[in-house]
Amino acid sequence: MQRGVVVRLVIFSVLTFAALFYLVPTFTGEFPSWWSGFLPTERIHLGLDLQGGSHIVLEVKVDKAVENTLERIKEELRKLLREKAVPLNELDRNQANQIRLKVSAASGDKVRDLLKSEFANLTVVNSQVSSGGVDFLLALNEKELRSLRDATVDQSLETIRNRIDQFGVSEPIIQRQGQQDILVQLPGIQDPERAKEIIGKTALLEFKLLDEAHSAEEAVKNGSPPGTQILYGYAAKGEGGLRTEKVPYLLDARTLMTGEYIADARVRPGSNLGGPYVELILNSGGARLFERVTAENVKRRLAIVLDNRVYSAPVIQERIGGGRASITGTFDMKEARDLAIVLRAGALPAPVEIAEERTVGPSLGSDSIRQGIISFVVGSSLVVLFMMIYYKGAGALADVALIFHILFLLAILAVFKAVLTLPGIAGIVLIAGMAVDANVLINERIREELRLGKSSRAAIEAGYERALPAIIDTNVTTFLSGLILFQFGTGPIKGFAVTLCVGILTTVVTAVYMTRIYYDYRIGARKLTRISI
Amino acid sequence: MELIKPGTNIPFTKYRHIAVVLSTVVNLVVLVVLFTKGPNLGVDFAGGTVVQLRFAQKVSIPEVREALGQLGTGDTVIQDFGQEGSNEFLVRLEKTSVQLGALGEQLRAGLSQRFGSGRFEIRRIESVGPKVGQELRQRGTWSVIAATVMMGVYIWFRFELRFGLGAVIALIHDVLVTIGALMLAHYEFDLTIVAALLTVVGYSVNDTVIVCDRVRENMRKSRREKLEIIINTSINETLSRTIITTGTAILVLVALFLLGGGVIRPFAFALLVGFSSGVYSTIFIASPVILLWERGKRS
Lengths: 533, 299
Known about the structure:
The complex is a heterodimer.
Chain A: H1 3-27, H2 33-38, E1 45-46, H3 48-51, E2 53-60, H4 62-83, E3 88-93, E4 99-103, H5 108-118, E5 122-130, E6 133-140, H6 142-167, E7 173-177, E8 181-187, H7 192-200, E9 205-209, H8 216-222, E10 228-237, E11 243-252, E12 257-258, E13 262-268, E14 277-282, H9 284-296, E15 302-306, E16 309-312, E17 324-327, H10 333-345, E18 352-360, H11 362-415, E19 419-420, H12 422-435, H13 437-451, H14 456-488, H15 491-524
Parallel strand pairs in A: 1-19, 10-16
Antiparallel strand pairs in A: 2-8, 2-18, 3-4, 4-6, 5-6, 7-8, 9-12, 9-15, 10-11, 13-14, 14-17, 15-16
Chain B: H1 16-36, H2 43-46, E1 48-55, H3 61-69, E2 76-81, E3 88-93, H4 97-100, H5 103-115, E4 120-128, H6 130-158, H7 161-184, H8 191-221, H9 227-259, H10 265-298
Antiparallel strand pairs in B: 1-3, 1-4, 2-3
Helix pairs in contact in B: 1-7, 1-10, 3-5, 6-7, 6-8, 7-8, 7-10, 8-9, 8-10, 9-10
């Protein structure tokens, strides 16, 4: 044999063995320890649509975080102006997330200086001198706004990751997507509804005083007095507390303390008085604050509010030291456990909303795999048969190349730990029909050259050489559309784009270069008198 | 074995006027329907929720509707799904799980009450918010347009501008015919359909490339020959490749269409139509455009 043929045979043999090695992990469940020591363990992963699970896209309501920040700044501003003895005519926040500030004409310049030195994150959108004084319109500056939005999404992601970790899902994917979305993938999850509950809860815990000067029922009817708000709680009702009833509470709008001081949250089994409850353990700062708050408000009722729902409003009997508080309410063990998870993982800096959800049960996934395999076997068998009938020997050669193409395609998917989805399987099936295209082009050209009366050898050489530009061009165009699809697609569609693009690369290698080895061998050995084509 | 005997010379370019008129009419009809009635949008694009249900026993659509009716979910479309006798249904709800709260829980409760728990299985829930849907629709449309233009630019770069133009017009034709067939067959447009359209764009241009390649070769060989004759010869010479390359793809697509399951069926259908249309458009659309361009330049 000539050297060229030997070298190429060696290269393809090495590639084939490597491909087989890389595919072992994909087709075996567990491997012995000696294997994982130095041999590949990467495998093709099944997408959520094939193994079952939930794909959830959460939109972080960053505008809410901006609102909260502005509200805080507004209060800081109020405090500062009071300290500096600047009389304040008006101070509020408008719908467009701007702060309106009105002071007397005399103190206009002083305020301007204060804003510049103390509130660098604000820009003065507009200032107007009128008869009543100076009107300022303030907003967060662009840079501040951007970093706030970014930080909000990042922090939400961290919190969600914490919650999912504590909930216990194997191999979850949690990542940012675009400007303000978070993608969460939970493979093989059994109870998607509960997972969504845990992920989506804002978990903003607030301690607020009850306004006992007015009646809540009255406030519901006639609107709440200034500085107060109405929130609802649920109370057990009827025999054994089976049904719940909505109860209004009139609360002081001021928040005395939030959940940011929680060091730990644990579920405690209930006593004979009620169901289980959640015990909060505060950090040292929180413990001090809680002690002060309780000392100042002995005999008043302190409401424990989570996501604007009042859980309980016990009377403060005495100053509470030691940094422990508890949330009681009407919940069962599972609810209490979920509540403890979200309290431990912390509150989301802004509410999230589910923008997209795709959940597939495990039985559908295995059905899809079965149907995919059946259509692959039937489809590629038809192609193999057709090629053998139409091109005889040359067709059989193309069929061998097709088998190697599939081997290489799967191996590359395994090496890159690609995710195989249902459209991805469809892609593999489709590529089987496209893989032989290069051979069709080559064989047709060889036939043409033979018809011109060329020798077998000349016909083969001309066939490969002249068919090549068209083969490259056709594959480039399909590859390009695959790339665009990859850019556009999400989840399962990306899987199709990946198999399409990788498959095109492997078909060119096997259909063109691999089949050529066989002809070159026969030409070299002077055995090529007649081609079966 | 030979499908097309060597020396075959079908006067394809002679029929180009009929073909152009026919295709223009078909494309215009598709465009009009597309912009007036609009395609049947799946949840990916329209927003909403789709639920795939399977029952242990034989269940009729009205029974399912009755069980779900208690949810008060508004406009609900229920259709058979999967193979005959598999008792599978696809339920389309206008609202999303976001708007409805714990949709899965509610569905389960409603179905358990009617059929008993364990007698049914919620196999899949897909829920897309209206904002996401709109964004995906726009991105999907643009990606198909971008791919089409990119194919034209590539062929312009590899061959000539007029070939690129011919390819782009042929591709627009293929995409429109595919969209029309999907609308005619009442398939819903979703992300997999966009994937199919992009694949049609990337693949049906292949035949055009093969013909262009041959036209260029023949133009070098016989410089004095009329372009029309060169193009016609080239189409005839490459006819068997055009048919066989697409034919092998069609073989696997038929398998996918029949055996690949309900999710893949619309995808396989779109590719079957698009690829077949690609063969036609290569012969009857791309070549006349090249000829027309030539004539326009001369006059």
